[in-house]
Amino acid sequence: MTSEGLTYAAAGVDTEAGDKAVELMKDAVRRTQGPAVLGGVGGFAGLYDLSAFKGYRAPLLATSTDGVGTKVAIAQAMDKHDTIGFDLVGMVVDDIVVMGAKPLFMTDYIATGKVVPERIADIVRGIAQACEVADTALVGGETAEHPGLLDPDEYDVAGAATGIVEADKVLGPDRVQPGDVLIALASSGLHSNGYSLVRAVIKHAGWSLDRHVDDLGRALGEELLEPTRVYASDCLALAADEAAQVHAFTHVTGGGLAANLARVLPAGLVATVDRASWVVPAVFQMVRSLGGVPRRDLENTLNLGVGMVAVVGAEGADAALARLSALGVPAWTLGSVETLDASTTQEDLVAGTKGVSGGAVRLVNDYRP
Questions:
Q1: In the chain, what are the domain boundaries?
Q2: Which helix (H) or strand (E) holds 217?
Q3: What is this structure's pTM?
Q4: Which of 70, 102, 200, 245 is the most exposed place for a label (fewest CB within 10 A)?
Q5: Cβ-Cβ contacts under 8 Å for 221 (sequence gap 6 or more)
Q6: Does the domain made of 14-44+58-166 have the CATH classification 3.30.1330.10?
Q7: What CATH number was assigned to the domain covering residues 173-364?
Q8: Does residue 96 contact residue 77 with C-beta atoms inside 8 Å?
Q9: Could you read off the pLDDT of 300-348 as tens digits, one per residue?
């Protein structure tokens, strides 16, 4: 202890570093903010002007919160922090879009063992860039220094967003009916789910992140850090296309395709997903072969190349595919929805996940080689 006594900085918290981080990031944050955002960077809370939405007849607010999970360990190991923000934004705003809601604004939270201004600024710049893609304002955030709880180079990120939707435009199980078609929207890779499994497989194989993998066409670490595809604007454009007849979306995150699809189906219906409708991308095949991961476990953990699913009316499938093609989103017909046959054995179905008592999903056939 010095003669002046113990200081906050001596305890491991550097408030000046936090101020510098804000200076480095604030231009990127401002680019996400239109006239509806009031006040500048650094306020105690963000303000968003809702007067532009006074024409809504029965507006509903939608909210979601999430983090990135253990993918941050890959970013930390590679000392590359400017893409993890896409994973955070994608995990949050695309859950809101599932309801048919437009994400309006978002806030973020970063906890770290030591504030390195350049690193924090890189993280937030990535969040801001993803918010621009999603047409969502980044209205505020918080960076907390936790010495002794986290190592100096460790951090975790989380975020929350709020959106708006007209009550009679809410998408979901109430709209889904027999004969509907499933349209798959391709993922950009692993996104940010299942990394505990992926990291365990990589460790088991003894592979380093700088290892070049021929099947991936790049270093392993580069593949693992591929940013999550942010679907928000594309899904809203698809939902606004009346010809596409969008009834529901599902965001394929933790739990895999079947478990998340079952959440947006009503009781008494079953969605049949045809594995043969797509080729599983190389990174997922790598995880399976390296770790000897059973197919069932792989399907229950990773997205396997399908990041979002649109459930559309039978007559809207062609229009939906055409619209997604025009938006530059790879998409294909994944399967269909039908009435659940009482004779179907429960062993063939995925249902009742996340506490939702609704419909069911079955996966059929084998994946294309």
A1: 14-44+58-166, 173-364
A2: none
A3: 0.92
A4: 200
A5: 74, 77, 78, 209, 210
A6: yes
A7: 3.90.650.10
A8: no
A9: 999 999 999 999 999 999 999 999 999 999 999 999 999 988 766 666 7
